[in-house]
Amino acid sequence: MPFPEGLPTTLVSYAAANPAGGGPAQGTVTFELTVDAISLTDTGIVYTGSGTYAFNDDGQLVDDTGTPGVRLIPNDLPYANPQNSRWLVTDRIAGAPVRSYYISLSVDQPEADLGKIQQMDAGQPEYTAVIGPKGLSAYEQWLADDNEGTEEDFLASLIGPPGSEANAQAYTDDALTSEITRANAAYDPAGAATAARIAAINTAADDATSKANNAQSAATSAASSDASTKASAAQANAINAAATSAATLYLPSAIQTVDAYLAGATPSSPRFFGHRGGGMVRPEHTLVGYRACAAMGFALEVSVNVDASGELWCLHDTTLDRTTYQTGNLNTYTTEEVGQAVLTNGRTLLGPGWTDQRMVSLRQVLDEFLGKIPILLEPKGNDAVVPTQSLLDTYYPHAPRSVIWKAHIGTLSLPWAKTRGYRTWVYLDSNTTDATMDGKDANVDYWGVSTTFTDQRIQQVVARGKPVFAWPVYRRSQVARLTGLGVVGMMSSDPRYVSTSTPQRTFSRWGLAVKESGGTPTLDYDTTYALVFGEGADAGWVSINALPNQSYGLGTYSPIVGSAAGYRIAFDMKYKVLPASTVHGGYYFGKASDDPYRFGTANTTGGYHVVMRASGDMQLYRHTAGVTTGTQIGSTIATTPPVADTAMSFQINVTPTTVELRRTDSTGWTTGAIADTTYRGGYHGLSNGSITDLNTRPYWRNLVITQL
Hints:
The protein is α/β, with parallel strands linked by helices. It contains 16 helices and 35 strands. Strands 12-13-15-16-17-18-19-20 form an 8-stranded parallel beta barrel, surrounded by 4 helices. The chain starts with 9 loop residues before the first strand and ends with a strand. About 35% of the residues are buried. It comes from Streptomyces microflavus.
C-alpha cells in the first residue's frame, strides 16, 4: 500500500509453512480495516485501505511489488479519525482451515511478525492481538536500577553465597518427618482394611441387587415386546391366510388356471387367445367380445389404459380416436364421461348391423371372468402400469393363478410380476436383439413374435426353449405357417375361425350387415380393407372399397365340401357405375389355402378367377402360384354387356375333372365344361380384379354353395 512520505507505518511480516508437507506455504492473507475509512486530519488524506497479499516461493508474505512484508497504518495514530480502529486479518493457506482474527498496530512498533501474534488464543471471538513497545533486556534493567558494570558483572551478581550444610540437613530432616506423618495418616492398618472390605461387600450387594432388578425389568420388557411382535406377526399371518382362503373360495370350483390351459400345448395342438376379445369379429375390447370368446373357451387378451379419474378401461390405444366416436387421450376423460358418453365405433370395421357398444372397465372384466378363463393382461400406457398393479394387489390377490402378465420387451414391470407369481408373456419387436432377450430371460415364461417376423427369426426365438405365442393371427394359413415353425400359441382376432378347419355355413346373410367370422381382408383391423355392406337401395350387397387389385376371402364358407360329383358357387354381381370396357371384376376359387389372392400379383398358392369385363366378355383364368399373370382356360364368351346398377347372376361348377363358368341372367351363357384339374382347393372369395376407380368397383350378393 503506498503511503505519503513521513506517515508512520508498521511493516507486517509473515513467514508460513505448508501444513501438509512442511515446505513454503501457498495462499493469501487479507487485511481489512474495521471501519469504512480513516481520515488523517494532519494530511487531509482519507484512507480506505484493505488488500489481499500472497506468499512468495519462500513462504514469505510479500506486497504488490514482491517485497517481503506489508506496510499498514498503525491503529493509534493521534490524528486519525475515528480512533481505535482495528485490522481484521484472514489467512487462507492451502491445506489449512481459513482463520480470521483481529490485530491492533502501534505507532511505537515499526515492525510486527504476524506469525507470532496470530498464534495467540484469547478465547474470545473478537480478541485483539496488540503489539506493544519493545521492552528492556534484563541487563539494561539492571543498569536502570543504579547498578554499574559489564554484562559479566550482571551475570555474576545473579549468583548468591554458598548455603550452610547444617541448615540443609535440618531442612531435610524436617521434610522427612513431615512426609512420614503424612504417610501414616494416609495408611490405615488392618482395621481400615476390614472396614473397606465390609464397605466393598455392601457396595457389591447393593450393586448386585440393582443389577438384578434392572435385569428382571429388562427381561420382562423384552419378553413383553417379543410377545407383542409375535402376536402381531401371527395376526398378520392369520389375516393373510384368511384372505388366501377367502380368495380361493371366491373363485369358481371349476377354475381354469393358466397352467391348466397351456398344459400340453404343442405345435400340433396349439392354444388360442382372443386377441382384443376377437376384434376382427366383434368390437374390440368390449364385453360382448370377451363374453363370446369366453363362451367358446378361448383365453382373453385384455389391454387397459387409465382415465383422468384413475379408473382402468379396456382399450388398446391410449387415445379414443380409432375405436370410438370421441377423440383425444383417454386420460383426459373422467370415469363418468367414459361410462356415459363414449361408445365404440365397431360398425365402421364390422358392419352397420352392429349396435354401438359401451367401453368396459377392467374391474368388470376381472369380476366376470377371473378364474373362469385365463386372461393375458397388459397395461398399454405407462401411466396405466402402477394402477393395474395396485388393483391386482389390493382386490385380486388370487389373480396370478389365472392371469398372464403381458408386456413389451422394454418393460420394467417383470420383477413385480414374477415376485407375485404371475406367468409372463413378453412380446418382441423387429429391432429386439438376442442380448436384450438374454437380459430379460429370467423373468420371461413365454415369448411373443409377430406374424410379420421372418421364418428365420421366429425359429431363433423358438430355439430358446420357451413356449412362443404369435400375434395377430386371423388366417388359417398363418396358423399352418407358425405351427410349422414351432409356435404353440395363437393370439387371434378371429379364434373360432382359425382354430377350426371346416366351413361355418353355405349361404350368405349379407343383408344383416354384420361381418362374418372367417372374412379375411388384405389387412386386419383396418377399415380401408374391410368389407363394405350396402345400405338403403343397396342393402344386401357387399363391396371392397380398396385399391389396387384387392380381394376379400370368404373363410366362413371354406373349405367348400362338395359331393363326389363336385360343388357349385352361385352369386349375383353388378357394377353401380360401369368401368372401361376391358376392366373387370370377378371371383376367385379353387385355392388350397386362405392366404391372400390378388389379381396381377404373385400369390402364395394358385387357383382360378372369374373375369367379367364391362364389354360383356366372360372368361376363366388359372393363376399359378408365384406368377403375377393368369392363364386363360377355355374360350372368351361374349355376353350382353352389363347394365349399370343391374344384377348379373353367375354359377361356377367344379367337378373332379372340369370347371365351368355360367352367366344365368337373361338368355344365359356358359364357357362349357373345361377339362382342368390343376386346383381343387376349397378356399374362395371376392375380387376387384383390375378395377382402378373405386366408383366402378363390383358389388356382390346372394352367395350360395351347393353340392352337385
